[in-house]
UniProtKB/TrEMBL annotation, chain A:
Keywords: Iron, Iron-sulfur, Metal-binding
Ranges for domain 4Fe-4S ferredoxin-type: 38-67, 77-106, 173-201
Domain of life: Bacteria
Pfam family, one: Pyr_redox_2
The protein's name in its UniProt record: Oxidoreductase
PROSITE patterns membership: 4FE4S_FER_1, 4FE4S_FER_2
Lipoprotein in keyword set: no
From TrEMBL, chain B:
Organism: Sinisalibacter lacisalsi
Residue span(s) of domain Rubrerythrin diiron-binding: 25-152
Full protein name: Rubrerythrin diiron-binding domain-containing protein
Domain of life the protein comes from: Bacteria
Database matches in InterPro entries: Ferritin-like, Ferritin-like_SF, Rr_diiron-bd_dom
Length: 604, 161
């Protein structure tokens, strides 16, 4: 039996019945203060499902749940909140990468079903969804930095008379600050064609563990020196940080890791094939990123791989297309050295279809991979393009890399508005500066600036270097001198203004203003409009035997052609960039490897 | 030569027959070309041959239609573009082993000629059935030319980044 006090105390409470209460008896209907942190709202269109709110919540009150299919930059997940756990601290609102998550000032909710208090704001309709009052973070994100750390670059006057690398690379301090902005949401991974494990290698930078970072890079990409410099960085367009700020400099961070691991150490970390030789042979045609990635994977599976390359050095367009000021040859060589160390034989100066036929490759190997890229430069074929003084961009770029003599007149005109056009324009500008002390390059593009194909930074840097860019011009004729001692030489390009380039459905339908005709003076015209694959190497019989898909070799999802011994990868079938070629190389290697494995099983 | 037959005026039937001949010639030209081009670009020539055949069929149906029959003898002013049009009927200046770009440029040039021909015919006929027919044909050519231009851009202005 308890004390007398225990028995009487319930009754003593009654004495308060006649007192005025300090809290109101029925709070329903009483509005909270304007900025009160009440129930959550989420603008479902704005939210990208990055899960930063889930990570920050100290009470584990948030679960990310699927509500739609994932697309680039949106996981399709949305936060589900458990009011049995939430303490309304609003950290989730403060960290939200898009500002989609807010709190209304509603704070009363009566329900007999305990499960009702776990809900997906913005998806499960609630009476407070449209309330204006409540708590929202003022200004931009503060918990995660919004601004990207600037990359050091050579100034235009310091770079215009040489091919030195423009980009300096991050210092350790810069990389740490940049890496710290990443919330490790992983939204970027799906957008990267090779699905590189971006959040984990960025986390390795934060930890200062570059060996681990390098190991993670090599899991998906043997070309991190290259991609750390020239990757088209589609991942950055999906980065959570681009909302209310700059995307994380994923490409520069990748480069920072390779900058911090010596070549010898890389070989130690990556190692060499750990399997017994299978005695299966694979021939790869073309030593670009697609062929070399496939070679790397297949060699590590224990197969004997020979890569045949027409040029004197391996690398494909990474060496013979991309100029040295964007990608130094030494950096490319470091990536290739790790691949060669896997036992891959690279036979340069051998053009398949000439020195060795496809038939012979087929007879001498268990599988053949075609990764020949796009090495025929397209021409507009407007009048005047035939004859001296007209070049294609990729041929000129190749000759510059090979150290061959190229014509460097004082005034050059480039036709084309893509990155290749910018590459040749900027290369010619450098050569002109050295030879003539001045830059005289004009780029004319069909597209207007709003539809330009080249990257914004390429355009900006070209302009900084003194390249003139004229948009919306349709080339009509390469005009040549008709008489005098320069008869037959190029005088310039005649063009018409393009009044519109695409129709309302976004299809190419150029409209010209013939009244607005101009002659752009130039001693040389360079065409940089497009490229094609040289499939003539296949020979007539194989070309006939193979299936084609609207001009390109038809391949299945694994990259296999209609001939069971032949695979194709890279620009020649997919494109358009190094990382897509790398992804293709992996895909093809997996398929070839599976076939070789099956052959091994049968042999046993 | 068809150019010799030209006079200022012609009947609707003559004009449509000339147009059909233009497409028939093109169809047999493309059909002959199919085995000559390499397999990778054969689709292009096959597509063009199919489009021309569809044209021939459409024109033949048109001539047979009861509405049209009453107008076949209507006099029409020959278009200025007619000479170029008639020349193009039998002037395929395309080598024996053309590549995709040559085929496309050739096809585009033909579309342009046909487009001009129909536009002028439409302009030369007063409102009524014939005017509608030629306007329709001009629109068809405009659409086909737009398709070809889009394809040209896709094929020729492509590759790399
Ligand atoms: C000027 C320029 C700039 C570019 N800039 C960028 C950039 O900044 N970022 C980016 O990501 N991508 C860029 N690209 C695109 C990128 O270089 C390509 O997407 C990529 O290199 C394609 O790889 P691949 O292996 O398919 O072909 P390639 O790199 O073209 O390699 C194919 C190789 O096959 C060889 N070959 C061809 N035929 C034969 C044969 N018969 N026998 C033996 N060998 C043969 C070629 O010599 C070549 O070495 C650029 C391309 C160009 C042209
Ligand atoms: S308000 Fe605080 S406790 Fe509630 S879900 Fe957000 S972070 Fe978690
Ligand atoms: S942090 Fe914001 S954007 Fe990201 S999932 Fe949460 S609510 Fe959505
Ligand atoms: S880089 Fe951007 S998208 Fe990728 S994990 Fe970091 S914050 Fe997320």
């Amino acid at each position: 039996m308890g004390s007398l006090r225990d028995v009487l105390s319930p009754f003593t409470a009654w004495k308060h019945v006649i007192e005025t209460p300090v809290t109101i008896r029925n709070p329903i209907g009483r509005e909270a203060a304007d900025g009160y942190r009440g129930f959550h709202q989420n603008d479902i269109e704005k939210c990208i499902g990055c899960g930063s709110c889930e990570v920050i919540c100290q009470n584990a009150a948030i679960d990310m749940v699927p509500v739609s299919d994932p697309v680039d930059g949106d996981s399709g997940l949305r936060p589900k909140i458990d009011y049995g756990r939430c303490c309304w601290c609003a950290l989730c609102v403060d960290v939200c990468m898009t500002g989609s998550l807010t709190m209304s000032n509603e704070y009363t909710w009566v329900d007999t079903d305990p499960d009702a208090f776990r809900f997906i704001p913005g998806v499960d309709p609630k009476p407070w969804d449209d309330l204006e009052k409540g708590y929202r973070r003022e200004g931009g994100r503060v918990l995660t930095g919004a601004e990207r750390v600037e990359m050091g670059e050579l100034a235009p006057e310091a770079r215009i008379d040489n091919f030195d690398e423009i980009v300096a690379g991050y210092t350790r301090e810069q990389a740490m600050i940049e890496a710290d902005r990443c919330v490790e949401c992983g939204l970027c991974v799906a957008t990267c064609p090779a699905h590189m494990d971006i959040p984990d290698y960025i986390a390795a930078i934060r930890e200062g563990d570059y060996d681990l970072g390098l190991q993670i890079l090599y899991e998906t990409n043997p070309f991190s020196e290259v991609c750390g410099r020239v990757c088209t960085h589609k991942c950055e367009t999906a980065c959570a940080a681009r909302h209310e700020g700059d995307p994380i400099a994923i490409r520069w961070l990748k480069r920072h890791i390779v900058d911090n691991v010596s070549e010898d150490r890389r070989l130690e970390i990556v190692g060499t094939p750990q399997t017994l030789p299978t005695r299966r042979k694979v021939a790869i045609v073309g030593a670009g990123p697609a062929g070399l990635t496939a070679a790397y994977d297949l060699a590590r599976q224990g197969h004997a791989v020979t890569v045949y390359e027409a040029q004197d050095k391996p690398g494909g367009m990474m060496r013979f297309g991309i100029p040295e000021y964007r990608l130094p040859y030494a950096a490319l060589d470091r990536d290739i050295a790790v691949i060669a160390a896997q036992g891959v034989k690279i036979e340069t100066g051998v053009r398949i279809g000439h020195e060795i036929t496809m038939d012979r490759l087929r007879a001498e190997n268990d599988a053949v991979v075609l990764s020949i890229g796009l090495h025929i430069g397209r021409s507009t074929r407007i009048p005047g393009t035939e004859g001296g003084g007209v070049e294609t961009a990729i041929d000129l770029l190749r000759r510059i890399t090979a150290g061959e003599e190229v014509p460097v007149p004082k005034q050059v005109l480039v036709i084309g508005g893509g990155n290749v056009a910018m590459d040749i324009a900027r290369s010619m500008a450098r050569l002109q500066k050295v030879k003539h002390g001045a830059v005289g390059v004009t780029v004319t593009a069909l597209e207007d600036f709003a539809h330009f194909l080249a990257d914004r930074e390429e355009i900006e840097e070209s302009l900084e270097e003194g390249v003139e860019i004229i948009d919306a011009r349709g080339p009509q004729e390469v005009v040549r001198f008709k008489s005098g001692n320069r008869k037959g030489e190029v005088k310039g390009l005649r063009s018409w203004a393009v009044t519109s380039i695409f129709d309302d459905k976004g299809r190419f339908a150029p409209q010209y203003d013939q009244g607005d005709e101009r002659l752009h003076p130039a001693e040389m015209v360079v065409e940089a409009i497009g490229q094609a694959a040289d499939v003539s190497i296949l020979g007539e019989d194989l070309t006939e035997a193979l299936d084609w898909n609207r001009g390109r070799l038809a391949v299945d999802v694994a990259g296999r052609t209609s001939e069971p011994w032949l695979w194709a990868a890279g620009d020649a079938v997919h494109g358009p960039d190094v990382i897509t070629a790398v992804a293709d190389g992996h895909r093809v290697a997996a398929s070839v490897g599976a076939m070789l494995m099956a052959m091994g099983e049968v042999a046993r | 030569m068809k150019t010799e037959k030209l006079s200022q005026m012609a009947t609707a039937e003559e004009v449509i027959e000339a147009v059909a001949e233009f497409s028939r010639e093109a169809h047999s030209f493309y059909t002959d070309l199919v085995p000559k081009v390499t397999k990778d670009i054969r689709y292009l020539v096959e597509d063009l041959a199919r489009a021309e055949l569809a044209h021939v069929r459409m024109l033949s149906d048109l001539m047979k239609s009861p509405d049209m029959r009453d107008h076949l003898k209507d006099a029409i002013r020959r278009p200025e573009a007619d000479r170029r049009f008639s020349d193009a009927v039998q002037a395929p200046e395309l080598g024996d082993k053309p590549d995709d770009q040559q085929v496309l440029q050739y096809a585009l040039a033909r579309e342009q000629v046909a487009l001009e021909e129909f536009s002028e015919l439409a302009a030369n006929t007063p409102p009524g059935l014939l005017h509608e027919v030629f306007s329709f044909l001009a629109n068809e050519e405009t659409r086909q030319k737009a398709d070809l231009e889009a394809l040209y851009y896709e094929i020729v202005h492509s590759g790399g980044v």
